[in-house]
Automatic annotation (TrEMBL):
<dbReference type="GO" id="GO:0005886">
    <property type="term" value="C:plasma membrane"/>
</dbReference>
<feature type="transmembrane region" description="Helical">
    <location>
        <begin position="239"/>
        <end position="258"/>
    </location>
</feature>
<keyword id="KW-0813">Transport</keyword>
<dbReference type="GO" id="GO:0006797">
    <property type="term" value="P:polyphosphate metabolic process"/>
</dbReference>
<feature type="transmembrane region" description="Helical">
    <location>
        <begin position="270"/>
        <end position="293"/>
    </location>
</feature>
<feature type="transmembrane region" description="Helical">
    <location>
        <begin position="364"/>
        <end position="382"/>
    </location>
</feature>
<dbReference type="InterPro" id="IPR004680">
    <property type="entry name" value="Cit_transptr-like_dom"/>
</dbReference>
<keyword id="KW-0812">Transmembrane</keyword>
<keyword id="KW-1133">Transmembrane helix</keyword>
<protein>
    <recommendedName>
        <fullName>SPX domain-containing protein</fullName>
    </recommendedName>
</protein>
<dbReference type="InterPro" id="IPR004331">
    <property type="entry name" value="SPX_dom"/>
</dbReference>
<dbReference type="Pfam" id="PF03600">
    <property type="entry name" value="CitMHS"/>
</dbReference>
<feature type="transmembrane region" description="Helical">
    <location>
        <begin position="319"/>
        <end position="343"/>
    </location>
</feature>
<feature type="domain" description="SPX">
    <location>
        <begin position="1"/>
        <end position="91"/>
    </location>
</feature>
<feature type="transmembrane region" description="Helical">
    <location>
        <begin position="181"/>
        <end position="201"/>
    </location>
</feature>
<dbReference type="GO" id="GO:0006817">
    <property type="term" value="P:phosphate ion transport"/>
</dbReference>
<keyword id="KW-0472">Membrane</keyword>
């Protein structure tokens, strides 16, 4: 039960079993006249104060969240109906019992902090607040993709569709994702390299030793690389369009040669080679890795595991080591770029209550997460696209299985994490 309840006439009131009972128990501890085991009673009372502080914080968050939600609803209502009743409704809402006298909750919160300081910190309110606020890390609210929210989004998209006759009030946009200026610059650079590449290749030493077909294909390949690089860097077109255009452009520009390198490959054979390269095991491995990462993120499994592990931490050195090990583990299965973002979102609510003298430790946490995420990127073949590319490069020489890769990398990663942890703690 919460230590406060809602009364329709007088707003929020203290429960008789809430702060008053805690204050009475505090006096019993201070008087040293209780016949029970004082140490056990002392620990139990400390835990009850923390739980009571959490309850007050939850009620404050609940009231603020509902008030914000009501304000957004009224704002949307005014926008849809072209009315201006939000301000009146908000003033009317402020007189309702659910949001009356929020200062009472703040006063109750302050009272708990002061009593906690007198009982456990010899009147030091700042240290008492720091301990109580550390317990608030359990109040981190994760945004989740739920079926209900997806249904609402789908319904809004359907409701936004309005049928109109052709030419009546319909604005036509030609490829809104297309950026004309970057596309024009990319094409100009492509043409410049394509026309200038023969003269540039003539300046290379020993170019005459290569077959003309190879030289021709190399010139076209250089032009294609320049075009794709500019399109990718400027995002002149969506990135997936640039990626899917590479096989088609490589066939059109005749960049493929036969195995003996003495003639250009026919268009049909070149198309088969390009499509087979797009469907290689390396590409499918990378896609599978990103699919696993997406599934973990969608159902918040990664965050659940992270919060469970951090809840077991005690000393600052243990927190740093657990965060680094957690970053290594997560980077083995999801992107080592997404892992720091995930762990930072978990860590920031924890460190927000730290005092100024804890700044070096916060820096150690950030550096440890970044370092461990990079280390974990080599843990499995799916941890990073570079690993999959390295595996494909070894196919003709030595076949390395998933288990062999992991068996070699995991001990090395653990050693690097221990060394990094020691260096950060020493620093």
């Amino acid at each position: 039960m919460l230590s406060v309840w809602r009364d329709s006439t007088s707003g929020w009131k203290r429960n008789s079993n809430g702060s008053r009972t805690l204050s009475y128990d505090m006096l019993r501890v201070a008087a040293k006249k209780d016949g029970e085991d004082r140490t056990l009673f002392y620990t139990s009372l400390r835990r009850r104060y923390v739980e009571h502080y959490l309850e007050i914080a939850e009620v404050l968050n609940f009231a603020e969240l509902n008030k914000t939600g009501f304000e957004k609803i009224m704002k949307k209502h005014d926008k849809v109906t072209n009315l201006h009743c939000k301000d009146d409704k908000m003033r009317e809402l402020s007189g309702k019992y659910s949001f009356t006298h929020p200062g009472k909750l703040e006063a109750m919160k302050k009272s708990v902090e002061e009593e906690f300081a007198r009982c456990f910190w010899s009147g030091d309110v700042d240290h008492a607040k720091e301990e109580l606020r550390e317990s608030l890390r359990e109040l981190v609210i994760w945004e989740r993709n739920t079926i209900w929210r997806d249904m609402l989004q789908s319904e809004r998209r359907v409701n936004a569709v309005v049928a109109k006759k052709a030419g009546q009030g319909i604005k036509r946009y030609w490829m809104p994702s297309l950026k004309p200026v970057p596309v024009f610059v990319s094409v100009i650079m492509f043409l410049i390299v394509l026309l200038a590449s023969p003269a540039l290749f003539d300046l290379l030493p020993n170019i005459s030793h290569y077959h003309p077909a190879n030289v021709y294909a190399a010139q076209r390949s250089l032009s294609l690389v320049v075009l794709v690089s500019f399109l990718w860097a400027t995002e002149a077109v969506p990135l997936y369009v640039t990626a899917l255009a590479v096989p088609a452009l490589s066939v059109i520009l005749n960049v493929y040669v036969t195995e003996n390198g003495k003639r250009l490959m026919l268009s049909g054979d070149a198309a088969k080679l390009a499509v087979s390269a797009m469907c290689s095991s390396t590409i499918l491995l990378i896609i599978g890795g990103y699919s696993i990462a997406s599934a973990l993120s969608k159902y918040a499994l990664d965050k659940t595991v992270a919060m469970y592990v951090l809840a077991k931490a005690g000393q600052p050195s243990q927190v740093l080591l657990l965060l680094m090990l957690l970053a290594v583990f997560l980077s083995m299965w999801i992107s080592n770029v997404a892992t720091p973002v995930l762990l930072n979102s978990i860590m920031l609510p924890i460190v927000q209550g730290f005092s100024a003298h804890s700044l070096p430790f916060v820096k150690c946490l950030l550096l440890g997460i970044a370092l461990a995420s990079n280390i974990g990127g080599m843990g499995t073949p799916i941890a990073s696209p570079q690993n999959a590319i390295a595996l494909s490069a070894l196919e003709g020489m030595q076949q390395v299985s998933f288990l062999q890769w992991t068996a070699i990398s995991v001990p090395l990663m653990l050693l690097m994490v221990i060394l990094g942890h020691g260096l950060l703690m020493f620093w």
